[in-house]
Design a protein that fits this description.
single chain, mainly alpha, 0% strand
Amino acid sequence: MASNTIKQDSGSIFIKVISYICISVFALFCVFPFALMISSSFMNEQEIIREGYKLIPNEVSFKAYELLLSNSSKLVDAYQVTIFITVVGTVLGLFMMSMAGFVLNRKDFKYRNFFSFLIYFTTLFSGGLIPTYILMVKHLHLKDNLFAMILPAVVGAWSIFLMRNFMKAIPDSLYESATIDGAGDFRIYWRIFMPLAVPSLATIGLFSALGFWNEWYNGMLYMDTQSKFPLQYFLQRMINQANMGSLINSGAVINTADLPTQSIKMATAVLATGPIILLYPFIQRYFVTGLTIGAVKG
């Protein structure tokens, strides 16, 4: 029985081995900080002070996690806020950016070049912090409102152009056939273009979800109520040693002489980054397709 395997020469095998080695080394460099963060979260305070952060601790300690979970109400509030702005912001953003990409791709839209220029212009210049703050607080009255963390990031110019470029790959004959059958614009967008745009939606959705999950800056600017702080801003306050006093005053019984001030930073980072990492494997198969198709067509 003849073998279908193509025999490779020594040069190809050598290049393949070198490529695997380089990729493996690069992957180790990427994974190392995350592994160090996880292992350090299980180290006790004295060992960190004496020997520094390391991958394999001499003694496994859960004091940092016990401290966080003993004051879980604020952590749960921060999780709820971050999950809310991530879900609402991503869904709202995908709807608006896909609508914009669909309209800008339509050749019968007379002003598509004008609006494309306006969207592109925002990638070069912006109003800055003070006009944005006045708009959000004085005119939109979103001070201490969760939508103050959603609206500034709900639409991105780069994502709109990525969506528009992806929709260029969809044949115009589909739109013409649907129009002849009596379908309206929104029906064509929802029933024809959206199912075909799943790879680009997954790609842009992942970027949007990561952006909302890591949101802290707008939370610092606009949020006053502590129960409305997003997770990353809550993490930042936890890292500050000054905030450790308020953590103790919240009702937890803590031995301040044995307070895990170093390992709690790593434990909080693990709790903050863990859930969003689980999202990537479910959309990985769409990620490369959506990114490459949208990026190639200009």
